[in-house]
Amino acid sequence: MASLRTVLLATLCLVALYANAAADQWDDVARKFVDQEQAHLIRRTTEASGVVIELKHPLITKGVVLVVTDGRPGFSFEFKSAALPSDPAFALMSRGGSLVTGKEATAILKALRESYQAALKDKNGMSIVSSDGISVSCIIIPGDGELSFLLATN
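Given the sequence above, the corresponding structure tokens read:
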């Protein structure tokens, strides 16, 4: 009985260590974004579905969220207006996307712009552009005038 308890305790410790290591990886990504882009950490939560790290940056008018679900990270950038974001905002999003995908910022920038243009043409204001191992979705909410981008790996 004592050996079974020891095995169970050792297994629980390994699971806890693995969970903390995975969370630390995403904390490091968020910290890099904060340091690199002069963003601000708002809050970090761990839910059953994954890690959620909320950030704030002046170029992104509503918020920035790093979401990790099933070990797959994504960056969400939300704006209070559906207007075309500024070039510096697009550049910021592409650099953030590069942090979570490991892909070149120029490829991400191209996908961001294509996704926005496609969402403008879509009757529902939605688009998904996938290329070079990345996926960018764009949602334009006309009534509320909001805009949202999500960047992740395919």
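Residues 90 and 140 are 16 Å apart (CA to CA). Try to locate this feature in the token string yourself.
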